[in-house]
Write a structure and sequence with these properties.
single chain, five-stranded mixed β-sheet, 203 residues, two-stranded antiparallel sheet, elongated
Length: 203
């Protein structure tokens, strides 16, 4: 019995079909790179937002636990406010950590006794290099973080600024007033900066 000619039944990709398949795959890869992959990176934003909120609140609690000014309640058992009984409040230009509270230009948090002592950058030397504020220590020096959690905060640092505030709370004051504004800026590299603000009154 003669063999059948099956040459006409054999099919494969033609050159044009192969080129078309490559073009379609290239378009699919462009879509993945342009839309899907960036969304994967954005999924880290809620993680950093939650960490920033926790760090910002913890730092603010640590700062607000201190008194209004270095000259407030000078004997630790009185109710004297600075500005009363000849105890002059610290001038705006002199706000910041005092000599006895600094060790090698870093703040001894345990010795800090008023809110403006914390004015500065809290992070590694590399993180604070681009800051206009003086580095006062590592983030862990200000906010106690367990060893297990330290890796979660390695890309986070703080900038703390404390200054006198106008009576209407509508801007920074250039003279001594009855309140200070505390600004804690939590920086998270490319995942955004988060600002926390509080006021401490002279009471």
């Amino acid at each position: 019995m003669p063999a059948r000619n099956t040459a006409g039944r054999q099919h494969g990709f033609t050159l044009i079909e192969g080129i078309l398949a490559i073009v379609i795959m290239a378009m699919a890869m462009v879509m993945l790179v342009s839309f899907l992959f960036p969304q994967t990176e954005q999924s880290a934003v809620p993680h950093y937002q939650a960490r920033a909120a926790a760090i910002g609140q913890a730092a603010m609690n640590e700062i607000l636990a201190r008194k209004f000014d270095e000259q407030s309640d000078p004997f630790n058992d009185s109710v004297i406010r600075c500005g009363e009984a000849s105890y002059t409040c610290t001038p705006p230009a002199l706000l910041g950590g005092d000599g006895s509270e600094l060790i090698s230009n870093l703040l001894n948090v345990g010795a800090a006794d008023d809110v403006d002592d914390f004015t500065g950058c809290w992070g590694t030397s590399a993180q604070c290099a681009g800051s206009g504020l003086t580095r006062l220590g590592n983030l862990q020096d200000l906010v106690k973080v367990s060893v297990a959690d330290e890796s979660d905060y390695r890309n986070i640092w703080l900038e703390v600024q404390v200054g006198y505030e106008l009576d209407a709370f509508d801007g920074a004051a250039t003279t001594v007033t009855a309140q200070k504004r505390i600004r804690v800026l939590v920086k998270t590299t490319r995942y955004g900066d988060y600002l926390f603000t509080a006021f401490r009154s002279n009471y």
